[in-house]
Amino acid sequence: MRRDFLLIYQQTVLGPLWVLLQPILTLATYVVVFGKMVGISTGGIPPVLFYLSGIILWNLFNDSFTSIAGTFRDNANLFGKVYFPRIIVPISRLSGYLLHFAIQFVMLALAFVGYAVFGTVPLPALGWLLMVPVAIALTGLLSLALGLWFSVFTGKYRDMAHLLGLGLRLFMFLTPVIYPVSYVSEKWRWLVQLNPLTPLFELFRRALLGQGTVTPGNLIYSAVATMLLLLGALLLFNKQGDKLIDVL
Predict the structure, then answer these.
(1) How many CA atoms lie within 13 A of 240 on its CB side?
(2) N or C: which end of the chain has fewer CB within 10 A?
(3) Closest CA to 150 of 243, 37, 213, 67
(4) Whole domain around residue 173: which residue ranges?
């Protein structure tokens, strides 16, 4: 895991400091643009905590998915020379980004403590805090599942990689990263709630910050969708692996 973490930042000026700088710069942009200029309501949560919680959870999904989706494309030479369980590579990549998330989560925790000391946010209930690992784990598994699916597609079709960036940007707007679900009009809320990430983001904020629209039904839907996608992805990944190596 440590090796993967360092490899990500090879030939960069600031190295692993980007783990902290990226969410900080994104946070500043979101607070100014969406908080001040657009005026999106954060449901009573301080904007810094609201946006930072969404940013770090989205980073976990986005970065893990993007990296895993390039598994066959990036490791064609290795897979062709040495046989080993290929699933090790995407799992290793996910593990590296979970470490990123852990570092960024500490930053979020410190920001939360700062607000709690001055009495602007209540302390979370212990029962809800136990749901934080659930939201993180399901987000990681969903990124793994979708990444495995698209690793096969990007291995077969090189131009698919160019579509992923655009698709992820659009997908972010269907995920409550910069807005709470309660902000979405009833007319369109169903579309946002079809996204299995939506209950996870709402659960994450509800567990930590006390605000979030999530029901047991939403969470069950997200968990079942994630498990089904992961099962299908594992079957496809294992079935297509040898065929893709021949093509690549």
Answers:
(1) 20
(2) N
(3) 67
(4) 2-247
